[in-house]
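Format notes (please read before filing issues)

Several people have asked whether sequences and structure tokens are stored in separate files. They are not. Every record keeps both together, in the order shown below: the sequence lines, then the token lines. Line labels are part of the format and must not be stripped during preprocessing.
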Amino acid sequence: MGIGFAASVDRIRKRWCAMLTTRVIPCLDVRDGRVVKGVKFQNLRIGARAEDAAAEYETQGADEIAMLDVSATTSDRSTAIETVRRVRAAISIPLTVGGGVRTTGDVARLLDSGADMVAVNSAAVADPTLISRVADRFGRQCTVVSIDAARTDAGRWEVVTRSGTQRTGIDAIEWSGRVEALGAGEILLTSWDRDGTQDGYDCELLARVSQCVTIPVIASGGASNPADFVTAVRAGANAVLAASIFHDKLFTVGDVKRALAEARIAVRP
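Then the structure lines:
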């Protein structure tokens, strides 16, 4: 409950103020402390150190950073705490961390290491009470549920887990409503089919989920240019997240914010 806690409270307060505008969130998929990126969670390319990338995006005007340890769940280990600490030391904006989160103890360690919000995914599907336990202990404002959704031949979306390797048979739209009822404060919604493809966000999926819940929805998966961010917001997203177009230096956070502002969508300068 010292200086670190007070700083986190201040970042969360600023974040909720920022949620009156559309947030632009670079995503760091991380393995062994370095940013990686692939297509549909596969064939990962290794990039910069996580802390260096995070600092650069803050300079560009990012509203917050999402850091997902992409190998933690499939390797049956917890998120790398030291990487979280290095990223936190490099930035002053809010930080959401996910990957390998299985218990409230994992959440506590991540928050103590500098995360402001923690995202749960595979473990929450296996045991939905985890969402309620996290929300009850740390508050809804710290509780993010990541939903990775894949289209099926039947024209619906199925929740996939363990970096997309496991099909669950769970309807993603229904799961969205359930996680809100269980205590989620926000949903990080990734289209598995669009991840890393730069084919644009799945706006039909976004619209369906946004209509089903009242909590904020972060769009993820498929952004190729600033116009895609505008389309996602108009489909119902409260925040827009991307990785490839930022990591590959195709566009900056500032480019995206200018496009949103020109479309009369409120953003933080």
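For reference, the curators noted about this record: The radius of gyration is 17 Å. The mean pLDDT is 90.
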